[in-house]
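User: Just a sanity check before I run the rest of the batch. Below are the structure tokens for the first item. I only need the designed sequence back.
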């Protein structure tokens, strides 16, 4: 039986939007001292959207975008994947420090637990940040 998962081609336009979101998160997460390179990679594991390699010593990072995704690359999803990858750059130095005590696999699990929590806060419809924005609006309307 053939794989029934959908495949979406990542176009130059998607890549350009992704790069824009990466720059935006780079600034928001205070990583402006990093040089982030973005490139497209062919023929990767189908469930991978992008992969990031960082050097905290040289303050560089490379994000490779997979050329086919199993999820529709909407603007919001491109933004979320950009956030995910830039968060990995942010947490990488902490992971490096933990390598003295824990395996890379365990550090990767811890890192992704944090990133998934942040993703839920920022991107899920019932996430706390959106919820708080709604509450702020209510407060404003009460205050006048
Ligand atoms: Zn990841």
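Assistant: Here's the designed sequence for the first item:
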């Amino acid at each position: 039986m053939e794989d029934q998962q959908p495949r979406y081609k990542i176009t130059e336009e998607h890549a350009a939007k992704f790069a824009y979101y990466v720059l935006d998160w780079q600034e928001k997460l205070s990583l402006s001292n990093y040089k982030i390179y973005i490139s497209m990679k062919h023929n990767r594991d189908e469930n991978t959207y992008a992969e990031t390699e960082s050097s905290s010593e040289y303050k560089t990072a490379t994000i490779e975008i997979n050329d086919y995704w199993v999820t529709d690359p909407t603007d919001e999803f491109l933004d979320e994947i950009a956030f995910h990858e830039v968060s990995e750059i942010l947490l990488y130095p902490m992971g490096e420090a933990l390598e003295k005590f824990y395996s890379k696999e365990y550090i990767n699990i811890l890192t992704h637990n944090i990133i998934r929590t942040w993703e839920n806060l920022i991107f899920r419809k019932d996430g706390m940040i959106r919820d708080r924005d709604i509450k702020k609006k209510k407060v404003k309307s009460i205050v006048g």
